[in-house]
Amino acid sequence: MGTRSGSIDPSIITFASSHLHKTPDEVVHDLNKRSGLKAVGQGDGDMRSIEMRVTKGDKDAQLALDMFVYILSKHIAAMIVACGGSIDALIFTAGIGEHSALVRKEVVSRLGSILNATIDDETNLQNGRDSDGLISSGNDKGLDKAIILVIPTDEEIGIFEECEVIMAKHF
User: Fold this and answer.
1) Cα angle for residues 158, 163, 164 (degrees, 5° grid)
2) What are the DSSP calls for 9-20, one per residue?
């Protein structure tokens, strides 16, 4: 994530609190606001600028990108296992998923034969525009088992729609 720590051992709070002479609330704040891409990227939690820095040879930015891709790939692989070892589709959405062709390409490359799908570089670079979101390459030839999609999301609209349902039930 941009500023959050992700999955860590909960005992880190007491350990960091005692070793860094911070209150538990300060450590929790650091884990939520000063960790993730921002910490590894030396204060930069925005994937767009991290990618730009990678193109300029910035090693901290490369490490942030590599860690992000590794962790995302690991979680997707775990979900594939939970789905019985195969999936029909992999969907990239939200900020980074919708807008980072590099992250999508690296994740799919890392998943390799587990995913059994490949990315079409051209449609990936276009974030799935003009292809109804489809960015995998072998589907029309029956080569890819899973399809890879980019689907735009609007979380605020989703929240609004859920609120409408709740409000309709109660008012």
Assistant:
1) 100
2) -TTHHHHHHHHH
Residue 151, φ and ψ in degrees, nearest 5: -125, 115
* pLDDT tens for each residue of 17-26: 999 999 999 9
- With vertex at residue 63, the alpha carbon angle to CA 36 and CA 102, rounded to the nearest 5 degrees, is 90
pLDDT tens digits, residue range 90-127? Answer: 999 988 999 999 999 999 999 988 888 889 899 999 98
Q: What ranges do the domains of the chain cover?
A: 87-171
Distance CA 7, CA 5 (A): 7
CATH architecture of 87-171: 2-Layer Sandwich (3.30)
Tokens 């590599």 locate to 66
For the chain, what is the largest distance between any 2 Cα atoms, rounded to a whole number of angstroms? 60
pLDDT score recorded for residue 59: 93
Please, what is the angle between helix 12-20 and helix 24-33, to 10°? Answer: 110
